[in-house]
Amino acid sequence: MEYLIELANQTHINEISKLIKLSARKLCITDYTPKQIEDALRGAWGLDNQLIEDETYYLILGNDEIIGCGGWSFRKTLFGSSARKDRDSERLDPISDAARIRAFFIHPNYVRKGLGKKLLIHCEQKAWDSGFTRLELGSTLPGVHLYKNQGYVMGKPYEFESSPDIFVTIIPMEKTLLSRPV
User: What's the predicted TM-score (pTM) here?
Assistant: First the structure.
C-alpha cells in the first residue's frame, strides 16, 4: 500500500477528530485508565485548529482514508486541543525557541509500519525549512518509543491535570537538528 502525506484543511476536522479518539482509546489503554483517556480527549489530547489555520498539520492517507495525523507549530502551546483554555498562540522565534511537534495519532490498524516516523521526519523538515533547529514536544506514554527512536531526549515526566483530580502523565522531549532531516 502506498501512503501519502497531505496538508490537512478544515474539511478534514471531523475525520481527524474520529481518528484521534480511536487511536487514543485503543493505543493508550495499557498506559492510562479509560477515565484518564476520556478526560484527556476533552482537552489535553486532540486537534488544535490553529495548526490547520497555520498550515502545519498533516494527514497520512492510505486507501483513500486518513490513517494518521500530526504536525508541528511555530506557536508557544506545547500540546492540547482547541478546547484547552490555556493555549498560547504567541509566535516562537526560530533563533531562540524550539518548534513544537504536535498531536501525532496513528490508526490502530496501521501502527508499527513506520508511518509515525515518516510523518515526524516530514514535520521536522518543515520546521527546519522555517528556520528552527530545535524541537520540543509533550509525549503520551505510548508515544515515547517513536520519539526516542528518532533522537528525542526525555525530560522529567509530569502529571498534567486535565480536569480537577484527573491527571495524565506527559513526557517532555526535545531534539536538536544539526542538518535538514532526511
Answer: 0.94
